[in-house]
Write a structure and sequence with these properties.
The complex is a heterodimer.
Chain A (H helix, E strand, L loop, with lengths): L2 H30 L30 H53 L6
Chain B lengths: L6 H34 L16 H10 L11 H18 L17 H9 L1 H12 L3 H32 L4 H11 L8 H14 L11 H4 L9 H26 L10 H27 L7 H29 L1
Helix pairs in contact in B: 1-10, 1-11, 3-4, 3-5, 3-10, 5-6, 6-7, 6-8, 6-12, 8-10, 10-11
Classes of the chains: A mainly alpha, B mainly alpha.
């Protein structure tokens, strides 16, 4: 088995381990714990009073703008890493190219800030 | 081929060790937090459990959780509700794969190293959002949305802050980064001080610790996305939080503080002293986190967002450019 394939298998095994830990401990707890559900107990918690409306009420999701900004910069980060490893070999050309790339994206962030998407009223 | 060279035997053994290490780190750090917090507030903290110093307090707490009823609210989206803690713990356990404890002691030295850490740690964001959404509770929903907004805002400074260290080391493998620092003779915290500070702030936010604990702000959101969780499912979030704190501190120690390496020690000495050196550095950072908790007040949600976007992201980009120029020109 190649070392490359083993890397992925190891990560897979440990991801599975995390899920297995949860299932194992819940399994043990299932033997010991009581189980007496009643309607009041199963009500969503709202500081003791009966819940008003559904738990999935309309909320102002301010975060979608941040989501969009995040996608742009996360992609930038992915492109920056390969350059970071090869920075010395790529030399001045690589440096100028990556600075131009980063500054272009920063301009987008500056535009978003100027537009006031980060201001909450 | 002996038994120990077999890939599957080796992975199974390492999985067993990590399965023991993850709850252990949570126990030790949880206890440290109780005790240090107590002394910072002129209290004694846990005292009676286990005979002296209350050392068994968290073990007793854990056993108590075994007997607690597992309440799933009837308005919850049950399948997602059950899956969320598993996803959070999965990302935490997978983080431990790449931490190098000594020149040879680690689960696996991935070439992607630090990049893998950043990718896998953001999986827990999905778990948190799932927990918040599926509970069918307004506090949980608000907490989940806040957590998602916060985690993605601070994911960027976290990712960009390590690029400087990667440029200097010329590799993403965590072992390679430690070796680069050993070859250089000084840890990266000195040339990459800005990166280190940004990384620490971002780690605090990723761990949703004070002053970045708006997603679980007790005084306004009860417990945020964990409000509806009880018994062992609640414990998993707690466990993941402390194990994550250990893992992220270990990553910060590895990338910026030299990891298992300490000046003046030979390679053979590092083989067995390495884990002690790393854990000592981790505890230093953890102490800092606990200290912050009792020093800074909680930020407001919009302050948090603008702090990340207006300060941390541009500063970390500046750090990348400065490091790049330094590396290429000199």
């Amino acid at each position: 088995m190649s070392a490359y394939f083993q890397d992925y298998l190891t990560v897979g095994v440990f991801a599975a381990l995390g899920v297995m830990l949860v299932m194992m401990m819940l399994g043990v707890a299932a033997i010991l714990r009581p189980h007496h559900p009643n309607p009041t107990k199963l009500m969503p918690y709202e500081c003791g009073v009966d819940p008003v409306g559904s738990g999935w009420d309309q909320t102002h999701v301010r975060y979608y703008i941040f989501g969009l900004l995040f996608v742009i910069f996360d992609v930038e980060a992915i492109f920056v890493f390969p350059w970071a490893i090869m920075a010395e070999e790529l030399g001045t050309f690589g440096l100028v190219a990556i600075i131009a790339f980063i500054l272009t994206l920063l301009e987008g962030l500056a535009y978003a800030v100027k537009k006031g998407v980060l201001r909450w009223e | 081929m002996t038994l120990l060279e077999n890939f599957w035997v080796l992975v199974a053994l390492k999985a067993l060790v990590i399965a023991a290490v993850v709850p252990l780190t949570a126990l030790v750090l949880g206890y440290a937090e109780l005790k240090i917090s107590a002394h910072m507030q002129s209290r004694i903290g846990p005292y009676f459990a286990g005979g002296r110093w209350g050392w068994a307090q968290l073990i007793a707490d854990g056993l108590k959780f075994f007997q607690k009823e597992d309440i799933i609210p009837d308005r919850a989206d049950k399948a997602v509700f059950k899956m969320a803690p598993a996803l959070v713990l999965m990302s935490t356990v997978a983080l431990f794969v790449v931490i190098p404890f000594s020149p040879s002691l680690r689960v696996r030295d991935l070439d992607l190293g630090i990049f893998y850490v950043l990718a896998i740690s953001s999986v827990s964001t999905i778990g948190v959002l799932m927990a918040g959404w599926s509970s069918g509770n307004k506090y949980s929903l608000m907490g989940g949305l806040r957590a998602a907004g916060q985690l993605i805002a601070y994911e960027l400074p976290l990712v960009l802050a390590v690029v400087g260290a990667v440029i200097q080391a010329g590799t993403m493998s965590l072992n390679g980064i430690v070796e680069a620092q050993a070859a250089w003779g000084i840890p990266f915290v000195i040339p990459q001080f800005l990166g280190f500070v940004i990384f620490l702030i971002a780690v605090l936010a990723e761990l949703t610790r004070i002053p970045f604990d708006m997603p679980i702000a007790e005084s306004e959101l009860v417990m945020g996305y964990v409000t509806e969780y009880s018994g062992f499912r609640f414990l998993f979030f707690f466990l993941a939080e402390y194990a994550n704190m250990f893992a992220m501190s270990a990553i910060a120690a590895t990338v910026f503080l030299g990891g298992y390496w300490a000046p003046g020690l030979s390679d053979a000495q590092l083989q067995y002293l390495g884990p002690i050196i790393l854990v000592a550095k981790v505890f230093l950072l953890v102490f800092l986190f606990i200290w912050f908790r009792w020093t800074f007040p909680r930020l407001r949600e919009d302050q948090l967002q603008s702090f990340a976007w207006k300060w941390l992201v541009p500063l970390s980009v500046l750090n990348i450019i400065a490091t790049g120029i330094f590396k290429v020109v000199f």
